[in-house]
Design a protein that fits this description.
Elements lengths: L5 E4 L5 H8 L3 E3 L9 H7 L5 E4 L7 H6 L5 E4 L9 H6 L3 E3 L6 H16 L2 H9 L20 E5 L3 H14 L2 E5 L6 H4 L5 E2 L2 H7 L2 E4 L13 H5 L6 E4 L8 H10 L4 E4 L10 H4 L4 E3 L8 H20 L14
Parallel strand pairs: 1-2, 1-3, 3-4, 4-5, 6-7, 6-9, 7-8, 9-10, 10-11, 11-12
Helix pairs in contact: 1-13, 5-7
């Protein structure tokens, strides 16, 4: 009898997902839900053909060479910048991710975070909880309007387009965007979205939302120079990836009043947050919860499980990152 493949589940997931995997494989879970060090991950991958992973496990050349039996790395996230995809492809290791299932939920969070920054929600809550609210003033915690304002989107993929729909159709916002390639006219038309170059995007946006993927080329796509081109009345929202924004430069701009406010769900060195950001009143800080609803997290894990089962049983995985491995 051919032995069953073995798979490693890098973080604790829903019990029914593990049960599905056990129908096909010998499964080694992470019941403590502790982030393993590189050496711990490597030790646990001994003899494993599959890995169900998050965006936190580094899959690089050294790890792959130490485990030539590995056949599939299936992520429950959209982003895969923690995986050396080229190295996986060269070694015949399939990589999959979970696009689509978290689009609307993440767009909800991004739009809410933008509004929270514009209307000073965090600052207002701290003000109330401190007991400082004892009178009305005409300028008390006055923020910036969202309705009718210009919404700028850097990165117009699925999530960017979902945010654009919310702004244009729900709040009457004027939508401008910059993307590596312009959308087809049929996609722009329902949103009256207008492609602009990056300099124009920075200069004209009242509320700029970042939804571009992380690549080495995109590191510090928003730095001191870019922030200096934005309106001092504008807000910046990052729900993309840490490292796309130079957090130190952002903190300096917020402190100096060169930018009105920011909303951040991701950070350069997360879970560490730049200490300057923690001291500022005009930034809303969230702990990378863009996709964090129960239904969406279940869908993300389910997608990874579907991919892993398919990859190791000879079927076609639903969402391969490097489909050339399949051929």
């Amino acid at each position: 009898m051919t032995p069953r493949p073995s798979v490693l589940v890098a973080r604790a997931v829903f019990p029914e997902a593990v049960a599905r995997l056990r129908e096909h494989f010998d499964v080694v879970p992470n019941p403590d839900d502790r982030e393993w060090s590189r050496d711990e991950l490597s030790g646990r991958l001994q003899g494993m053909q599959g890995l169900l992973a998050t965006a936190g496990e580094p899959i690089d050349v050294a790890l792959l060479d130490a485990h030539p039996q590995l056949r599939a790395v299936c992520l429950m996230t959209v982003g895969y910048n923690n995986v050396d995809v080229d190295a996986c492809t060269a070694r015949g290791v399939l990589v999959t991710n979970a696009p689509g299932v978290l689009t609307e939920t993440t767009a909800d969070l991004g739009f809410a975070l933008m509004m929270a920054a514009a209307r000073r929600f965090s600052e207002a809550e701290r003000f109330l909880r401190s007991g400082a609210w004892n009178e009305w003033r005409v300028d008390l915690l006055a923020g910036r309007d969202v309705h009718g304002a210009t919404l700028g989107i850097l990165g117009m993929g699925r999530i960017g387009q979902a945010i654009a729909r919310r702004g244009a159709l729900g709040f009457g916002m004027k939508v401008i965007y910059h993307n590596r390639s312009r959308l087809p006219a049929a996609a722009e038309a329902p949103l009256a979205a207008r492609w602009v170059d990056k300099a124009t995007l920075l200069a004209e946006s009242d509320h700029l939302v970042l939804v571009l993927p992380y690549t080495p080329a995109n590191r510090h796509a928003i730095g001191a120079a870019e922030l200096s081109r934005m309106k001092p009345t504008a807000t910046l929202t990052n729900i993309a990836r840490g490292g796309i924004v130079d957090d130190a430069a952002l903190a300096a701009a917020l402190r100096a009043g060169r930018l009105f406010a920011a909303g951040l769900d991701v950070y350069e060195n997360e879970p560490a947050v730049h200490p300057e950001l923690l001291t500022l009143p005009n930034v809303v800080l969230l702990p990378h919860i863009g996709s964090a609803t129960e239904a969406t997290r279940r869908a993300m894990v389910g997608c990874a499980v579907d991919n892993l089962i398919a990859a190791l049983t000879g079927a076609v995985p639903p969402t391969p990152v490097n489909p050339q491995v399949l051929s």
